[in-house]
Amino acid sequence: MSAPGNRPAPELIEGGFGVEIADAPLLHNGLNLADIAHVLALRERGIVADEPAGRLLGVLLDAHKTPVEEFGYDPAFGEAYNSRERRFTAEIGTDAGWLHAGRPRREAVRIAMRLRLRRDALDLIDAACDVVRATSTLAAEHAETFMADQTYLQHAQPSTFGHYLLSFAYPVQREIDRLFDDLAWVNRSPAGAGGVNGSRLGYDRSRVAERLGFDGVIEHTRDAMWQADGLIKIVSTAVSLVTTLAKLAEDLEIWSSTEFDYVSLADGHTRSSVLMPQKRNPYALTMVRGEAGVLIGRLTGMFAISKTPSARSDNLIFAYGEVPRALELAGKATRLMAGVIAGLSVNAERMYDALEGGFSQAADLADYILATCGLDYRTAYDVVGTCLRTASAQGLRGVDITAAMLDEAARERTGEPLGLTDAELHDVLDPRAIVSTRVVVGGAAPDVVRDMARRCLADAEASAARSRELRTAFDAAESALLQAAADAAELSR
């Protein structure tokens, strides 16, 4: 056992304490609140007398007012907790030692991380709500902007840009719901867990949780200290959210190219080439895609460092910084994507020209032949495919197909003509008419899209309101805690 006070090796200061101290800016506020709640609990139980409790609360309140860069965290004196202890001891002597009563250092830091993460989670929820708002609003505006929806970057079937956009609003809203679930795990208190099995000091765990604005305690004391599954989950949700947005970013990057010219990014989301005057690079989309990749790496890293025996600090020491930074980066990417969507210009004419110039009505035509001519779908599919190959070779479009061309293809395939007329085929080949038939739940018909957009927008507003309520509750709990500390410090004088 090493003797107390032995100075750490320089390489340990650099590669150990220095790495941990780098996370102090993320934890400073939470450490102050955790320490204040702990001292108030000790005072209420009569474990520490009023006078030393008041002096200790006084320095903690002063620490809370001190910007982190002025506080004096120094890896030469250990990680953040020990660095704080040194400062408090220099100010009030052995009264600072009451901070250790009934808890290890990791308890304070675990609490501080959760206090930080609940704010980060709300920030990310708010950013995701902005994405759903922007996407729903743009989708409603483009419920009748007709385009060829794509699979594998090939024309699939006629649709609208509004319907396409809503395919991102729904998964983002699901990520918002998951973030609220993750927040419910984060907002539980590990305070009073002791080393592994609680404390003999009669610590009121529920009271401390209430003072800190937590929804309750993490029941099992060992679980409270060592499990990281919830941390992995919230990072996973953040990564999933940004990965969804990266898919949209990839599509928009392709569609904003000269070759497609479906959309244009606002000038504020692009960056000019320093060499080629004609180029406006979709820089914002590049950043979102890259940030998704970085976040995937961070999630993988969380899994890697969590693969330890139980009751090891490896994963949590690094989680103190990695998890808040992951949520912070996810928030930046999400806010950026919300801005891109809100500022997007859509070239509806170009979208329709591309739609009309292709053969995206092929599946509808096969369906119509099946229903009208009594052919099975595979035979109808083959007839249409034969007809389209002929039309393409002649430089024709899907809208140019005639009943005579279909009869010729049918004779080749079945030996018999279909007997359809050009008048019958008009609406079957018209992309707009095709979209109007998509009135099933979730379909692309304009009124269906508008209704979905309205409900997505309402869901985002409800989520944003819920976030505001939680933030207000957190603010109120922390303000009340600080006031209780100030009152106790004043009474002890």
Write the layout of secondary structure elements.
Layout: H1 10-21, H2 24-44, H3 50-65, H4 68-71, H5 80-92, H6 105-141, E1 146-151, E2 154-160, H7 161-186, H8 205-211, H9 221-226, H10 229-255, E3 263-264, E4 271-272, E5 280-281, H11 283-306, H12 314-342, E6 345-346, H13 348-356, H14 362-373, H15 377-393, H16 403-414, H17 422-429, H18 431-436, H19 446-491
Antiparallel strand pairs: 1-2, 3-6, 4-5
Helix pairs in contact: 2-3, 2-6, 2-19, 3-19, 6-7, 6-12, 6-19, 7-10, 7-19, 10-11, 10-12, 11-12, 14-15, 15-16
For the structure shown, list the relevant keywords.
mainly alpha; Fumarase C, Chain B, domain 1; Fumarase C, Chain A, domain 2; Ribonucleotide Reductase Protein R1, domain 1; 3 domains; two-stranded antiparallel sheet; two-stranded antiparallel ribbon; 19 helices; elongated
Instruction: Work out the oligomeric state of the chains in this entry.
Output: single chain
- Strand-pairing-aware structural class: mainly alpha
CATH superfamily heading of the largest domain: Fumarase/aspartase (Central domain)
Instruction: Tell me the number of structural domains.
Output: 3
Number of strands: 6
Q: Give the helices and strands as they follow along the chain.
A: HHHHHHEEHHHHEEEHHEHHHHHHH
How big a fraction of the residues is strand? Answer: under 5%
CATH architect. name of the largest domain: Up-down Bundle
At the fold tier of CATH, the topology name of the largest domain is: Fumarase C, Chain A, domain 2
Number of separate helices:
19
Shape: elongated
Our Rg estimate from Cα atoms comes to 31 Å
Q: What is the spatial order of strands in the main beta sheet? A: 1-2
Summarize the main sheet: 2 strands, antiparallel
CATH class of the largest domain: Mainly Alpha
